[in-house]
Amino acid sequence: MKILGIETSCDETAAAVVENGTQLLSNVVASQMEIHAQYGGVVPEIAARHHIDTIQPVIHRALTEASCTWDDIDAIAVTYGPGLIGSLLVGTLTARTLAAVHTKPLYPVNHVVAHMYANWLVDPAPALPALALIVSGGHTQLVLIKDHEQHILLGQTQDDAVGEAFDKVAKVIGLPYPGGPSITKAAVHGDPKAFTFTKPKTANPLDFSFSGLKTAVLRAAQKAAGGDHTLPSYEVAARLTAQQKHDLAASFQATAVAILIDRLRLANDEYSPASILIAGGVAANSSLREAIKYHFGDRAHYAPMALCTDNAAMIAAYGYFYAQSNKPTPYTEVTTEPSLSM
Ligand code: KG4
Ligand code: ZN
User: Which residues line ligand 1 (CB under 6 A)?
Assistant: First the structure.
């Protein structure tokens, strides 16, 4: 079964063709990163407008690169939430139109759940039950995948997502957007023990919290810059040396990864999963990847970096597993759900 996946929930316009949920035939991502970088974050109206301009050529390329015509496509899967409403609308309306014109079954899927399914595009696929850590710019969730229909939420962030913390810390210490990759690069030259940040306690030990860590890094950066808590955050970076920035990046990253690993180890002890996987943009972080390999060995899974950040291959992969036990949605009934939860 060949599924065309379509993803437009944020600032990536993406289309991909995946066979049987596991075989990647094409994966096209048009990133708007450079456009939004000049504003220091995603501007929703600009994102939606760019999706309109690029969606058709992106889908055309995904079909061409998979050597497929519409006759070869068995179904369409599209992200219907969560995400930016204007961006989601472009993807869902495009998918609805294509499903109607080419008479294809249409499966609307949850973007956050789909992130986990990037791991099914890698051989060997994770064995079930699997413990999954979804870490992105908008989400930090610990999930038990019992089977492809049962995704049980074990814990989630009580405030900021971990990717958001990477992005905000990067901004304070003057590293370019997006913060995740910038922090990783800077951390290579820094000492992870230069600054000590405490790990948060949460009522549910499998929940997360990152706002305290974010503030602690800001306070440490203000102090290193020779000021106190009254020094405006936008003045901090200019007063830091390159080494101080590297040390702050390394110390923050080490603490963030330790918080994530602590939760994984706790849930691993409690649920004894057959495999452990990470997903979402922050799963591209090399330090987190090394840590899960170190702690969980062969049971640890992660996808190539390009499949961790937003893409449509994960949408098509999850679309396949979803289609095994769900009916397609009539195209007129596919809506967008910007705040869709699990
Ligand atoms: O999954 P994603 O592409 O979009 C969302 O659904 O949010 O995740 C984007 C997030 C951003 O916060 C970005 O800074 C972070 O993933 N990220 C990273 C790395 N690459 C991307 N965080 C840490 N280390 C990285 N190498
Ligand atoms: Zn995402």
Answer: 10, 136-138, 163, 166-167, 178-181, 184, 280-282, 284-285, 309-310
